[in-house]
Design brief:
By secondary structure, this protein is α/β, with parallel strands linked by helices. It is built from seven helices and six strands, in the order αβαββαβαββααα. It has a three-stranded mixed sheet with strand order 1-2-3. The radius of gyration is 17 Å and the shape is globular.
Length: 151
């Protein structure tokens, strides 16, 4: 079975990194330019948190904060579940479901290794759809994927 290490090996080098002192408005601009739903907040080489679209809606808009004056460190998510490189994709799915999250932090011993997203897991399911879905459903997924309707 595929592991966290396998998932990370198939992901491109992280380019969605931002500092904790960056203003939220600039983080939103970066989110738009990288076309992803999250940014990894790093200070030096140390992982500090994740800034995602949900953080913006819940911690800026709904709390009446200003995007131009608030910093990412004031609104980011810092309490995401952790997985290790040897853990399976199935374990990741269970962890996401039980924690009701879209992101998991991957660690190699005590060193931050990357982020596993719900989309990473869904891609695995689709790549291995013959093990998960019957032939008719797998064919429909493949058809939608080829038309660009999946992800």
């Amino acid at each position: 079975m595929r592991t966290v290490k396998d998932l990370l090996a198939n992901k491109p080098q992280a380019f969605n990194i931002i500092g904790p002192g960056v203003k939220v408005i600039d983080a939103l601009s970066m989110l738009n330019s990288v076309d992803l739903s999250y940014l990894v907040v790093m200070d030096g080489g140390d992982y500090k948190g994740i800034f995602c679209e949900r953080d913006y809606t819940r911690n800026v808009i709904l709390k009446g904060r200003n995007s131009s004056t608030s910093s990412v460190k004031d609104v980011m998510t810092i309490d995401l579940p952790i997985v290790h490189l040897n853990e399976t994709v199935e374990h990741c799915m269970h962890k996401m479901i039980s924690h009701k999250t879209r992101y998991l932090l991957a660690y190699d011993a005590d060193k931050f290794a990357g982020v596993i997203t719900i989309h990473d897991l869904l891609r695995q399911v689709i790549m291995n759809r013959e093990l998960v879905f019957d032939n008719a459903t797998a064919a429909k997924l493949l058809e939608h994927e080829e038309k660009g309707k999946v992800f």
